[in-house]
Design goal:
With about 450 residues, the protein is an alpha+beta fold. Helices cover about 50% and strands about 15% of the residues. The protein contains 14 helices and 11 strands. The strands form 4 sheets. The protein has a 3-stranded antiparallel sheet, covered by helices on one side. The longest helix is centred in the last third of the chain and has 42 residues, at about 415-455.
Length: about 450
């Protein structure tokens, strides 16, 4: 019985040796392929394994040797199995259809996989088929992973320890002044010969000072334009309704900046380096009670002073023209002219007129008491107004903050003489009237007293 079973087993093995050999070879090749693939999951380090120094490479070399031995052994076993199957399969007859040589297919499949792994080529169409002849699912090639960032270099310090080397920083080339100058030169050259970069700037001017900016007949405006090479556009006469007006200055950048600065000086100080070249500035402290004399009727006093001494008179703003404190009047011109104008203004504050500008006039000072001063003024100022109208003189009475605390009479000598007579007569008449009223009241009192005594 045992002999019969043994014979049947041997007969089965001989008839199916090709299939068995193919299964064995496939299993060995698959195991070799799995062993040759690098593991995607890092093997955790055991606690009893000694740490490997960074500078020591003996551990990694030993692993490579072991891996190489396993691959060599697996390849050798596969080759031996293939050779044995070829030698035994020649005497085996097939029962029907010719079956494909599984050993050759397995060998070619392993060789193609090794070649594809080494060269990085895609697997062949035959390698994608299974044993049953069915088409394997289509393999989609994954995109190549982005290259990993290079690890920082490690160097040894003086004591032999490893440390990470710091990457060298790239120095940004700073722009040199020569480069900027060259860029400006290129821009100027691109503009062409005779062409300049024109700019436009605006400046706000108080509407009431537009006349100062324009000047008599446009003289000041033309002087500013000619000196700076610019064009000044001012609003029309009916357009400047607000407190300030907008003016535009157009031309070269340097000329526009100079012109704008001159306009601001002209409207704030009353002069500029263009309209009043080589000039100095002086000032006179003055109480507002003298402003009407300085300005004159419709500005005639200032114009006469400016024309006589060749200066520019700048009055303080109205917010500084209060009765409780003095203000400063600015004088602009040459030093000698400014000094002469200052002396003239100081003299005016003592005699209430400009002596050098009105040589036909003179003045006298009258020292009157409080009673006499009241007699000169009269009831509601009627007496002093009558004298000024008859003699064409100006009579100035003492006022707070005045430099001279006397009555000053200004006029021609003949007019002053007549004014003095009228002043004396007015004071005398007022005194007589006062005495008469006193005597009249005394008589009335005496009469009343005598009547009471008789009773």
């Amino acid at each position: 019985m045992a002999a019969v079973l043994e014979g049947e087993t041997m007969e089965f093995l001989q008839s199916n040796i090709a299939v068995v050999a193919a299964v064995v070879v496939g299993t060995v090749s698959g195991a070799a392929f799995l062993l040759s693939r690098p593991s995607s999951t890092p093997t955790p380090a055991t606690s009893n394994r000694a740490p490997v120094a960074q500078g020591d490479t003996s551990g990694s070399t030993e692993k490579k040797k072991k891996k190489k031995k396993r691959k060599t052994k697996a390849n050798k076993e596969a080759q031996e199995g293939a050779a044995k199957s070829e030698s035994d399969g020649g005497d085996v007859e097939s029962d029907g259809d010719d079956l494909p040589d599984p050993l050759a297919a397995a060998a070619s499949k392993g060789a193609s996989k090794k070649k594809a792994k080494k060269t990085g080529a895609a697997p062949s169409a035959a390698a994608q088929k299974t044993k049953a002849g069915k088409q394997a699912p289509e393999v989609v090639e994954a995109a190549a992973p982005a290259p990993a960032a290079a690890a920082p270099a490690r160097i040894k310090d003086d004591e032999g320890a490893w440390e990470t080397a710091k990457p060298a920083k790239k120095k940004n080339a700073a722009k040199k002044p020569e480069a900027k100058a060259a860029a400006k030169a290129v821009a100027a050259a691109a503009a062409g010969p005779g062409e300049t970069n024109s700019v436009k700037s605006k400046v706000e001017v108080p509407s009431k000072l537009l006349g100062v900016l324009i000047g008599p007949g446009g003289e000041t405006l033309h002087k500013l334009q000619d000196a700076t090479g610019t064009k000044i556009n001012t609003p029309n006469k009916g357009d400047s309704t607000g407190p300030t007006s907008l003016c535009w200055v157009e031309g070269p950048s340097d000329g526009v900046a100079t012109c704008v600065r001159a306009i601001k000086d002209l409207t704030t100080k009353g002069y500029s380096s263009i309209t009043h070249p080589n000039s100095t500035e002086g000032s006179v402290q003055m109480w507002p009670l003298y402003f009407p004399i300085l300005i004159g009727k419709e500005g005639a006093g200032i114009r006469r002073l400016q024309d006589a001494f060749g200066i520019k008179v700048v009055m303080p703003e109205k917010r500084f023209q209060t009765d409780n404190k003095p203000a400063y009047v600015k004088l602009v011109g040459s030093k000698s002219s400014v000094d002469k104008a200052k002396a003239e203004i100081k003299q005016m504050m003592r005699c209430y007129y400009f002596p050098s500008l009105s040589p036909e006039l003179t003045h006298v000072e009258l020292d009157l008491g409080d009673g006499q001063l009241r007699d000169l003024i009269g009831h509601r100022g009627m007496t002093i107004k009558s004298i000024q109208g008859d003699t064409r003189c100006k009579i100035h009475t003492p006022r707070p903050n005045a430099l001279v605390q006397k009555v000053v009479v200004v006029g021609t000598p003949a007019d002053i003489a007549r004014a003095q007579k009228q002043i004396d007569r007015a004071i005398e008449r007022a005194s007589e009237n006062r005495e008469a009223r006193y005597n009249e009241r005394f008589d009335d009192y005496a009469d009343d007293y005598s009547d009471d005594e008789a009773w």
